[in-house]
Amino acid sequence: MHPRSEFRKRVATMPVSGEDDPHLARWLQPESVLCDVDVQDATALFDLASKEIARRHGLEPAPIARALARREQTGSTSLGNGFAIPHARISGIAEPLTLLIRLDEGIAFDAPDGIPVELFLFIMVPLADQHAHLQLLAAIAHVFSNREFRRAFDVATDGPAMSGLLRAGIAGIAR
């Protein structure tokens, strides 16, 4: 099976109830939301994301960027429709964290539908994590597969609006 198909199949079959893990909603709420970011490719995007994560957690950005790039080499984390969930395990964090980035223009990201990706939810989990990241991936894929949610999200004008919509979407699955 192609790695991209395997990724989407695993995400689609994971449970998405917040009852499975009481921390799920908190972990999914992005620490930071960056809007209308101008990057030319995935390398520049991963560099930006790794610097933001490193800055917030007192880490070195290079290992974060390498972890993201390594994960992406195994298969695209794009789910299609301009959305991707880059994710990796990193050292130096005690629990999962997320970072949401919306680009001003989509970039090529090996999407299954060929549409340039403009919305990225980065999920970083501790090295020892064996389960939480799959739950997080499934939950966020569930939220973003809702057409009404996605339409509202796509027209949100700033970080606080996007964060509020995401909070509401996450609350819907945490019940």
Total number of helices: 7
Classify the secondary structure makeup into a structural class.
alpha/beta
How many strands, which pairing sense, and closed or not: the largest β-sheet? 6 strands, mixed
- The CATH topology annotation reads as Mannitol-specific EII, Chain A
Query: How much helical structure, as a percent, in the residues?
Result: 40-55%
The whole-number mean of residue pLDDT values reads: 83
- What percent of residues are in strands? 15-25%
The sequence of SSEs as H and E is: HHEHHEEEEEHHH
Distance between the termini: 34 Å
The number of domains? 1
Radius of gyration: 15 Å
> Which runs of at least 5 residues are low in confidence (pLDDT < 50)?
1-21
CATH architecture: 3-Layer(aba) Sandwich
Q: What is the CATH homologous superfamily assignment?
A: Mannitol-specific EII, Chain A
Q: Based on DSSP secondary structure assignment, what is the total number of beta strands?
A: 6
- Please tell me what the overall shape is: globular
Q: Could you name the CATH class?
A: Alpha Beta
Name the descriptors.
single chain, 175 residues, alpha/beta, Mannitol-specific EII, Chain A, 6-stranded mixed β-sheet, 47% helix, globular, disordered N terminus, transport, PTS sugar transporter subunit IIA
Structure description:
The protein has 7 helices and 6 strands; from the N terminus they run H-H-E-H-H-E-E-E-E-E-H-H-H. The protein is an alpha/beta fold and 175 residues long. The protein has a single domain, classed as Mannitol-specific EII, Chain A (3-Layer(aba) Sandwich). Strands 1, 2, 3, 4, 5 and 6 form a 6-stranded mixed sheet that branches. Helix 3 packs across helix 4.
